[in-house]
Amino acid sequence: MLLQAGYPFTAVVGQQQAKRALLIALVNPHAGGLLIGGRKGTAKTTLVRATQELLAPRKLIDLPLNVTEDMLFGSIDIEYAVSKGERRFLPGILGRANGNALYIDEANLLRQELLTAVLDANTAGFNHVERDGISFTHEVNYTVIGTMNPEEGILPSHVLDRFGMYVDVQGEMETADRVEIIKRALAYGENIAEFRKQYAASIKELWEQVQAARETLTQVEVTEAMMQLAAQMCAQAFCAGHRAEIYLLEAARAIAALAKRTYILPQDMQEAAVYVLPHRMRTPPEPQEMEQEDQPDQEQEENQESQENEEEAPQNPDELPPPPPPANEEEDEGSEEDSEDNKEQDEKEQEQQDSNQLAPDEQIADIDRSFKIPKLVLDMGKNTTLRRGSGKRSATKTDLKQGRYVRAELPKAKVEDLAFDATIRAAAPYQRMREDNGCALNIQKEDLRQKVREKRIGNTFLFAVDASGSMGARERMRAVKGAIFYMLQDAYQKRDRVGMIGFRRQKAEVLLPITRSVDLAQKCLAEMPTGGKTPLADGLATSLLTLAKLNKKDSELEPILVLVTDGRANAVEENGGDPVTAAIKMAEKIRKAKITSVVIDTENDFIKLGVAKKVAQAMGASYYSLRQLSKEQILRIVRNLGD
Amino acid sequence: MKRTAVYPFTAIVGQEDMKLALILNVINPALGGVLIKGEKGTAKSTAVRALAELLPAMDAIHGCRFNCDPHNPNLFCDDCAKSHVSGANIYVEEIPMRVVELPVSATEDRVVGTLDIEHAIKHGEKKFEAGILAQANRNILYVDEINLLDDHVVDVLLDAAAMGINTVEREGVSYSHPARFVLVGTMNPEEGDIRPQLLDRFGLSVVVTGEHDPAQRVEVIKRRLAYEDNADEFIAGYQDEQEELAKKIMQAREVLASVTISDQLLETVAKLAVELGVDGHRADITVIKTALTLAAFNGHAQVEMEDVKLAAKLVLPHRMRRRPFEEGQLDWNKVEAFLGQEA
To answer: Are B172 and B288 in the same domain?
Structure first.
């Protein structure tokens, strides 16, 4: 294998939890593997790579993101088939990983169905392959080690659950430690061999400890009392399912074995809990919620709540495990920092106000970063058309020869994107029967297979925001900005494109043309002033125009219009018409243009005029009030079919 | 290969940060590349392509498709490792370091490599056909408009950049080979963001803007016209300057290993990183490496505060974002005040 000589495990400064969890995982494969989460540059990958030396003679097998299914699960042995005319199974990565450790770098970027298949095969203990005319089952037993950076999006809880252990790593904050890290990095870069020599003894010692622990492991007993303790701990943490107890006990066994003991102490269990419990804790279901059992998305809410609750969990390892991976960045930063951020933001805004010389009726509200809106669900119906683009929101098949090659299939028409590997696999067994054409392979039409590619396509969101004086009651605009901010964050992770239109005074203005830069959108949002009348009709007209232009450029994108308004249309129309009538007329045009949209109604006054709702109806839009948003579980946007 | 005329690096007017960042990466490929941000028409691509002329020659193992370094057996590819272990003769050749381009439209199989179709048909055997990452080993990998790169191509780039190895498990082939490259990317921020994970892989970043000084602008036009008028003559006019710079780079490469840095400066950098709240440790390490390289380029035997300051300016700005998509800003006054008080 390549690169035997990496950075030594024992040369990594700090990161005690991650190191310890890795040792447990290496000693006991039944502890369910390990997922390490952490920001960039925190030695995640370095640590995992370094375990190679501690594993020997076992190996650390890489599972790269570019993997195709046949290579992962195994397939027909082409070379054997060509020479012998027989089908034989050639193991894939899972086969090679058997008895070894399997490493997935950036596990959250791997296609999720592959990730769960890898984890489930290990739990089941076998890999069953049914492809290319081969039917084969083989045993698997490996330790899955994954790393991920939560900034790139996190794994859903049902996938997270499948990892036995989870550790969150952070950079060291002590100056002395940081200096040491720099020094070692420089020394390593200067002369790898020399550097490694210094750590050879400590590596050997650690290797021996792991080996010895693996032998001791079989003798470590699990007593009734420990089982009871495990059940108790898991019940306290409201863990879903029964995997938690098993992983807890297995991890504790490894800890005991590493300490050269054949019995488990309660403190082993406590240490194991630090790694096993944090990512699978739930909150107790509340009685009121139990009454509304007919709600389909009960579990989701529970998840959300549990995540919030987990954050409040104390950091003290003696009491409870550290918090799990952040549900999103907003929550990750914790509340203390939030308030600080807000203060900073406030100050910034203050400065801006001072310098920008706002008109007397104008003001700039800051963003309420604590505003949360429910999960956004796009109900776009079946999408059978092939699309182009790049992003993460919707997985669609693509007809371009781009996108990730996921599998091969029998061609339905003329083959344009030949899956050569699959074609050879189909042809290989027949070679001895076919005429010799001078090549080793005689490929015939029936062998041809074509690639199925998958590409995730981001959506395009155009925000049309009412920035009139009536919205300007400061708190309301803060909440509006908070809601949009939240959607923007979501858009970032999903690689959506966004644009922004503001309307106030006499006209609407494109503040931000459609762009992939969510950064710009956020800036634009923060700086958006409010004041003046509400030219609702013009806001809608400008939106329609922007989207029509976009459609011409790229007819395969399906943009979504998000209209945020209180509906108090009062700007005078050029022809002297009624502003509300004009707005509704324009809304109907949007419906006819089949533009999918959602209206977020911010009307909050005692006397409701309900114009926004009427506009939503005319537009064929999904409708939510701002207040409703903070209570709903799902913000559903339904495709507008134009009728 | 046919040699096409290239605008000389030393003839580029202004853009000192960008030129310096590129040169530093040539002197010390371990810096981790550079991201050049700027509007259209600010000589970004010209500079990167011009850099090729200044690249030094390097020793490589003859016939190795990954240009393995004969002096570093730790990083050999499988074939070279085999010859090395068996004691077979290894022939060393001198080849120029290159700029390998990764076009935005590149497909994943072209980037990581794939099954050699011809070989499979003719011989019924599987063989790995190397991709762009193989060519890029020990060279400069240049991605123009890197922010427009397809997500899944970015994923494989990250995978390779993380450990300097490209692992291929696709289309019937299973292969890994060294892929250590200097990543140079250019982007126009108006056209979209770059993922934070990829951003962090860049050692340095610079922002280029068009020159504002009218005299400078006139100079840009004059040189461009002269170049278009008679490229050969124009290039000849810069030959001396080019050679001088190339020589300076070579000298810096030679002395780099002997440049030292005081513990006090190391501490200052570590404290600065904590003060600014950067993620992880890559920022600290890169500031130091850059400062060492700067000292070598300037012919100093020891790193001085000025080197650290300039290094911080090149290394820190793109590492300041605390959340994906929050405006990350480096408060340069804060850095200067901090360094001033430490000095």
So the answer is: no
Residue A605 maps to which CATH number?
A: 3.40.50.410
| d(C-alpha A163, C-alpha A481), whole Å | 37
Q: Are B25 and B33 spatial neighbours (Cβ–Cβ below 8 Å)?
A: yes
Residue where one domain finishes, among candidates A285, A312, A339: A312
Cβ atoms A232, A277 nearer than 8 A: no
The ipTM assigned to this model is: 0.85
For residues A127 and A75, is the Cβ–Cβ distance under 8 A? no
Domain finish residue from A187, A215, A243: A215
Exactly one of B98, B170, B217, B282 is catalytic; name it.
B282
Same domain, A230 and A209: no
DSSP assigned state of A437? -
DSSP A507-558: EEEEEEEEES-HHHHHHHHHH-EE-S---HHHHHHHHHHHHHHHHHH-TT--
Residue A357 pLDDT? 47
pTM of the model: 0.74
Are residues A465 and A440 located together in one domain of the fold? no
Best of B116, B170, B191 to disrupt the A interface (most A CBs within 10 Å) is B170
CB B55 within 8 A of CB B26: yes
Does residue B117 lie within any of the structural domains? Answer: yes
- Closest chain A residue to the Cα of B124, Cα to Cα: A440
**Residue range B152-178: average pLDDT?**
84
Single-letter amino acid code for the residue at A141: N
328-387 of A, contacting B, C-beta below 8 A? 329-330, 332-333
CB contact under 8 A, A431 and B124: yes
Q: How many domains does chain B have?
A: 2
| B282/A40 Cβ within 8 A | yes
CA angle, A265 then A268 then A271, to 5°: 155
Residue A343 lies in a domain: no
What are the residue ranges of helices labelled H in A333-429?
A: 334-356, 420-427
At A586-617, the pLDDT tens digits run 899 888 888 888 888 887 766 677 888 888 88
Residues B196 and B261 reside in one and the same domain: no
- Chain B contacts of A421, Cβ < 8 Å? 115, 171-173
User: How far are the Cα atoms of A73, A472, B187, B245, B265 from residue B14, in angstroms, in the given order?
Assistant: 55, 47, 19, 16, 30
Sign of CA dihedral B250, B253, B258, B259: positive
Rounded to 10 deg, the angle between the B305-315 and B263-276 helix axes is: 30
Please give the residue range of the domain that contains residue A56. Answer: 9-215
Spatial neighbors of B38 by CB under 8 A, at least 6 apart, are B44, B186, B188, B207, B208, B209
